[in-house]
Each structure stands twice: as structure tokens, then as C-alpha cells.
Automatic annotation (TrEMBL):
The chain crosses the membrane at residues 12-30, 80-101, 113-132, 139-161, 173-201, 233-253, 268-283, 295-315. Keywords: Cytochrome c-type biogenesis, Membrane, Transmembrane, Transmembrane helix. Its main location: membrane. It is found in: Membrane. It comes from the Bacteria. Pfam families: Cytochrom_C_asm. The gene is ccsB. InterPro entries: Cyt_c_assembly, Cyt_c_biogenesis_CcsA, Cyt_c_biogenesis_CcsA/CcmC. Residues 110-316 form the Cytochrome c assembly protein domain. This is C-type cytochrome biogenesis protein CcsB. It is a multi-pass membrane protein.
Length: 337
């Protein structure tokens, strides 16, 4: 295949992945709609009584009743939605491969903000699929799919840039090491931020009305479970982020600019993000911070994380990482990290 054909394949794969993500989102919305009139059950018995992916607890009635029918439909839509999401992730991966193969010479697909966004959304979706069974994440499906679909649309409509060779600063094997670790941690932190946000929503519902027996919020896991899942995701992402920001980043900077640290705006915000997440984990382990305060601090970290990757690129005019910005700045093609 020629470079043009590879780029065309990548573009078509992005469109196909977006379509399948949308179908998966609709399927999961149908899953939750089917459960709308099915009361939430307390205890493991209800979870064992019907195959609801992720362990969404329902109270089922006698076989053939409305409750039983709604639960069975939800189980079907849940499994279908998960399979569609897996398919979308596979097609999404094809788009990344095609993007890298379209360059001459072939390279990793992280040459500009469009490609980094494709990679970031892929990791978010892939981690969701990979951790779906372990953490019973069926309750997260609509939020994750809506997030990935929205960011993909933004990338296609506003960040798209034609395939181009890497800039001199990016032509290094440290690109692979640094950006892989950064993208993995971004995916984990994003899922952790989503969980923290849902914790606050659930907490407000419980505090305000004592909780409800139907609806999406009622079917979220218990607050303790949400808190624990959020902590585990952040605890996984933090050492990877530390490796990216405090080890591979400075080494790459020294190779490119002969200095390990330049107080560049993007470097500063990456360090701010590291400090916020370090404070989050430290507060949990030493001060016993859990629940609402921990969730708020985690969301502050999510804000600094995404502002570092997107905001700095558009609001800073002094960053040496300007190649990580929009598709075109000052008339030149930019690259992302």
C-alpha cells in the first residue's frame, strides 16, 4: 500500500470507529432504559439472579414478569454494547497503525495533536475494555463512550493535520518511551477522574434524598466501591506518570535542548499535575482522606492533566513544546507529545 492509501485507511478507520462507538453508546443507553422500571436490589443474591454485565444489581420478579423481562433485555444490551465497544477499540487501533504507516519513513502515530488525541482516546477505551471484568465497570460504559466519542469528534473537526515527517526534536527513540508512558497514565487518570465525578454525583444523591431505587445514579456501585476503584486507577497511573514526567521527559529534554529542565510552561504544568496526584495519594495513605475530599482533589488533577495537554498548546506562546499544539501554529505543522 502507498502512503496515501495508508492515510486514507486511517481516516476511514477513525470514521468507522466513531460510528461503532456511537452504536455501542446507543446500545448501553438501551440497557439502562430497560432497567428504568426494575428496582435496584440490595445484596449479592440479586446480582446472581440475572446476568447483568458488571454486576449491576437488580431485583427480578417471577419469570415472565415485567421486572424479569427488563432485566433480561438489559443483560442482552449490556453484552452487545460491550462487544461493540471491543470492536470499536480494534478498529480504532487500525486507524493508529494506518497513521503511522502513512508517514515516510514509518513512525509512531504521535506526530501532532490530532494523532496524540487519537492515541489518548484509544488508551481510555482500551483500559476500560481491559478492566471491565476486573473492576465490574458496566456502570461506566455510557460516560466512557460519550467521552471518547466527543473527543474523537473534536479531533477530527478541529485538530486534523495531514501526515508529515517528525520534527527534529521528536526524531528520537525517547519519543516512544516518553509518550507511551504519558498516554497510559492519561488513560488511567481519565478513568479515575470519571469515577471520582460519579462518586460526587452519587454522594449528592444519597445525601439529598437518601438514594433512589431506580435510574442511572441508583445503579452506580456503593460509594465505598467507587472510592476504591478511583484510588486503584490513580495508584496505577501515578508511577507511570512519574516515569514519564520526572525520568524520560528530562532525559529527552537534555537530548533535544541540552538541558534537563527549562521551566517550560508544559513542563511546569506536568509537574503541577504530578504534585496534585502525589498529594491525592499521600493524603489517602497518611491522613486517611477518602470520599468527597479525595474525589474533589482527583478532579483537580484531571483538570490540570488535560489543561497541560490541550490548554497550554493554545494559550502559551513561549513553550518550547509548541510542536505539541494545534495542527497549525504560525503556519507550520505542529507535533504532539
Amino acid at each position: 500500500m502507498t502512503d496515501v492509501q495508508w492515510e486514507s485507511l486511517s481516516n476511514w478507520a477513525v470514521a468507522a470507529a466513531g460510528t461503532v462507538y456511537f452504536l455501542a453508546l446507543l446500545t448501553h443507553l438501551a440497557e439502562w432504559a430497560s432497567l428504568r422500571k426494575v428496582p435496584v436490589a440490595a445484596g449479592a443474591a440479586a446480582r446472581d439472579s440475572v446476568d447483568i454485565p458488571g454486576g449491576v444489581a437488580v431485583a427480578t420478579g417471577p419469570e415472565g414478569t415485567a421486572d424479569d423481562g427488563g432485566a433480561q433485555r438489559a443483560a442482552f444490551f449490556g453484552r452487545l454494547g460491550y462487544l461493540l465497544t471491543c470492536l470499536a477499540v480494534a478498529v480504532h487501533f487500525v486507524s493508529l497503525v494506518g497513521r503511522g504507516m502513512a508517514a515516510d519513513p514509518n513512525r509512531v502515530p504521535w506526530g501532532n495533536m490530532y494523532e496524540f488525541t487519537l492515541s489518548g482516546t484509544f488508551v481510555v477505551a482500551f483500559l476500560y475494555v481491559a478492566l471491565y471484568r476486573k473492576f465490574r465497570l458496566a456502570w461506566m460504559a455510557p460516560i466512557v463512550l460519550a467521552f471518547v466519542l466527543t473527543v474523537l469528534m473534536v479531533a477530527v473537526l478541529w485538530l486534523y493535520a495531514p501526515v508529515a515527517p517528525l520534527t527534529e526534536a521528536l526524531s528520537s527513540y525517547w519519543l516512544v518511551i516518553h509518550v507511551v508512558s504519558a498516554i497510559i497514565s492519561v488513560g488511567a487518570f481519565t478513568l479515575g477522574g470519571i469515577t471520582s465525578a460519579l462518586y460526587l454525583v452519587k454522594s449528592r444523591s444519597v445525601t439529598k434524598g437518601g438514594g433512589t431505587t431506580s435510574g442511572y445514579v441508583a445503579r452506580l456501585p456503593e460509594l465505598a466501591v467507587l472510592d476504591r476503584v478511583s484510588y486503584r486507577l490513580h495508584a496505577f497511573g501515578f508511577p507511570v506518570w512519574t516515569f514519564a514526567v520526572l525520568i524520560t521527559g528530562p532525559i529527552w529534554a537534555h537530548q533535544a535542548w541540552s538541558s534537563y529542565w527549562n521551566w517550560d510552561p508544559k513542563e511546569v504544568w506536568a509537574f503541577i499535575t504530578w504534585v496534585v496526584y502525589a498529594a491525592y495519594l499521600h493524603a489517602r495513605t497518611t491522613a486517611g482522606w477518602k470520599g468527597r475530599n479525595a474525589a474533589i482533589l482527583a478532579l483537580v488533577g484531571t483538570f490540570t492533566l488535560w489543561f497541560n495537554f490541550i490548554g497550554i498548546n493554545y494559550f502559551s506562546t513561549t513553550s518550547q513544546h509548541s510542536y505539541a499544539g494545534a495542527p497549525e501554529v504560525h503556519g507550520t505543522v505542529q507535533a504532539g507529545d
